[in-house]
Description:
Blueprint: H1 12-22, H2 24-54, E1 57-58, E2 65-66, H3 72-77, H4 80-114, H5 117-128, H6 135-146, H7 151-158, H8 162-169, H9 183-207, H10 211-219, H11 224-253, H12 257-260, H13 268-276, H14 282-305
Antiparallel strand pairs: 1-2
Amino acid sequence: MSVIAPAVEGSPARRVGAFFYRHPAVRLSLFLLPGLLWLGALYIGSLGSLVVYSLWSLEEFTGLVVREFTTSTYRELLEPANYEIVLRTAGMAAAVTVACAILAFPFATYMARYASPRVKTFLYLAVIMPLWSSYLVRALAWRSILAGEGFLMWALERVGLDGVVRTLLGVPIVGGPSLVQSKISLFIVYVYLWLPFMILPVQAALERVPVSFLEASNDLGARPGTTFRRIVLPLAKPGLVAGSIFTFSLTLGDFILPQIFGTSEFFLGQMVYVQQGVAGNLPLAAAFTFVAMAVMMLYLGAAKRAGAFEAL
């Protein structure tokens, strides 16, 4: 004997609710549809347009974009002046990431293992509060500190270390005509700005390291250095790599700080800004953007294999 489900009675809203209750897949699709449309139409569509633009070229005589598919724009990236920009930016991003990791690890260790709840709250605020102010305001504040007549040079002159700074400024790779107009200042400001993005993931990863592991290592006679290398560092690696995703990607795509600090040498984000703005070379700007995307995809793939997304 078959059983016939009773008809749904009541208002249309009640019937619509009953329909969605009986069809959870439809309900889920409606929940996801706005976000998927936004992601598909704007984000993925924008990335697709960048790929198309990068396959066009610029007519040298008229300066007009030639809408014919070609790889000539990518061949321009192989010119020494252009691939040096990619290498210079990737090198700065890697150096900033390593410096942030070295500075963040002791700070995060103290927060996770030794700080009392009150001190930990204070340290959380100390890490997060700089993020409440404008990125540009903090950068300009550092410009006044690093200026020739700024506080840093004044303090170094008082202790007789201003000669060390002038010697560093004479080094071709990191130097420049002045402290503000050098890669040293750009590196310092990058580390200051992105350090909170490294501290927080590392601190979260270190809090998940079981204390029993450390006690067992100590009971077995392992030295502190051995415990760090074989227990703490492997378990904290997801947090380190997760933080490095932020520091590396933010440095790779930034175009504002190289215009405030550093020498006249271009960086990747700055080159994209100049080519699509002043020069009007949209195909080359898109090609540089695509290179940055490719670098980050490779980096994210390596980070995923290292288990970084477990700490996010």
